[in-house]
Structures are given as C-alpha cells and as structure tokens.
Amino acid sequence: MKGTSGGAVVLLLWLSSPAAAQETASVLAEWSRTRPDPRAPQGENLQTPRAWRVRADPPHAAARVGAERDDVDIWFVNMTPGWHVTTGPAAILWHPASTANGAYRPSATIHLFDPGDSLEPYGLLFGGRSLGEDASDYAALLLRNDGTFSVWRCRAGDCAPAVDWTPDEAIVRYTPGSGSSVENVLAVEVREDELDLSVNGQRVARLPARDLPIEGIVGLRLGKDVNLHVSDLAVTPGG
Fold first, then answer.
1. SS3 (DSSP) at 69
2. Which strand ranges, in their side-by-side order, compose the sheet holding 181-190?
3. Beta strands 74-78 and 148-155: pairing type?
4. Ramachandran class of 146: left when φ > 0, alpha when ψ lies in -120 to 50, beta otherwise
C-alpha cells in the first residue's frame, strides 16, 4: 500500500517473494509498460492483477483490495477473459499503461450481475490525470440499472455531471429473468473538437472536447457494492 499526500491512498497491487524479488520486479516493470490484455492475465487467474492500481473514490484510507473475498473491501481478480470486480466503496481502477491522446477510442465491455434495487453507477473512465493523488482529474461515461447514463467530470474527489442522468433505450438493464448478468459496451470516440459517447453501438451524447479532459489514462469508475465482470477494456486509434 502506498500513501499519497493529504491522505489519498493508492493500492499498488502486486505479489512477490523475497527469494524472487529481482525477477518479480522485472516482470512487474514489463507488465506496467504493457497495456492489459483481457486474454492474458498479469499474474494468475483468480488472483489480483499485478500492476493495476485501485483507489477508493473519494479516497478512503481503510479500503483493502485483493483476491480473498472475506478479507477485502474490493474484490478484484483476473478472470480470463478479463477481470471480475466486486466493490465495497466506490472506486476507480486503472492500469498505468492504458493511456491515450489525440484521436482515439476507449471502450469497455461490462457484464453487470444482479444489482437488486441498487442504482449505483458503473462505467468507463477516460482522460485520467494524477489519479493516485489528491488532484486527480478524469471524466467518465456511467450507466445505472434504471436504464440511464450520465457523463461525469471528477476533480480532486469532487464529481459534477457534464450530462445529467438521462434514459436511453440502448442501455441493457438487469431484470428478473435476465440470467446471471447483462452486457453493455461503453465507448467514446475522442476527436480534437468533440466526443461521441455510445452504449452498445448507439450514440447517447455528443459533447465539445473542451468540456472534458481528453488525454490521459483509460480505466473504470465503479459505484458502491457493484458486482461485475469486465471482459474487455481497450484503447484503439480513432478516425
């Protein structure tokens, strides 16, 4: 665990043994430089992915992240293809190599498991800067299980909507009889002057690029007590 100024906490997730410290450090350094691949876990399946970073949002010093369900606040593991996350506190999750600038398209395929009556948000973080610090800055395209989406701008732990919660038929809701989970694909087409935000291939919003941070880290922003599987998190060149 690594503390940052002002009480913010970044949980640097890796496992190592004293006997293999040098080898572990070398592997971790390579993983840290390589964008995560949902088909190739960084570490063992059902273990916390090494090189990823997690921070409760807003920062919460007591949050623990790991692979032992009964001993952690945020359960985060490799589950090929992708990653499974069950939160306690709301959190942001990112890999340091998932960065982008210019014209690009970040996307995430997220499977939401039965949320009950909860309307906690979940979705795609982009334009992230200083995420492990008090001065963190990012935007996020978020969904709720009432069939609404929102776009947030979050700075120093304070989030405000760039787009208020808005219903859209493109969003797949979990309802009784949905099976174990429902899938939504979130994406943002980032261009020099505008952003097109989509869910399941349908545009839900278009915003001026000046309204949001557009260069930086791509990751996830998850609400409290959500249970989901992320089968893909990608950054591809834009048009």
1. helix
2. 65-66, 74-78, 83-86, 227-237, 104-113, 181-190, 194-199, 202-208
3. unpaired
4. alpha
Taking the whole predicted model, whether its pTM rises above 0.90 is answered as no
> What range does the domain containing 27 cover?
2-237
**Amino acid in position 49:** P
pLDDT per residue, tens digit, the chain (239 aa), is 333 333 334 444 444 456 555 655 666 677 788 889 999 999 999 999 989 999 998 877 678 999 999 999 999 999 999 999 999 999 999 999 999 999 999 999 999 999 999 999 999 999 999 998 888 999 999 999 999 999 999 998 889 999 999 999 999 999 999 999 999 999 999 999 999 999 999 999 999 999 899 999 999 999 999 999 999 999 999 86
Q: What is the β-pairing status of strands 83-86 and 74-78?
A: antiparallel
* Domain containing residue 176: CATH number: 2.60.120.560
The total of structural domains in the chain comes to: 1
| Helix %, strand %, coil % of the chain (to 5) | 10, 50, 40
Task: Read off the DSSP letter of residue 35.
Answer: -
The dihedral over CA atoms of 206, 210, 211, 215, expressed in degrees to the nearest 10, equals 90
Strands 74-78 and 65-66: parallel
SS3 6: helix
Tokens of 83: 């990653």
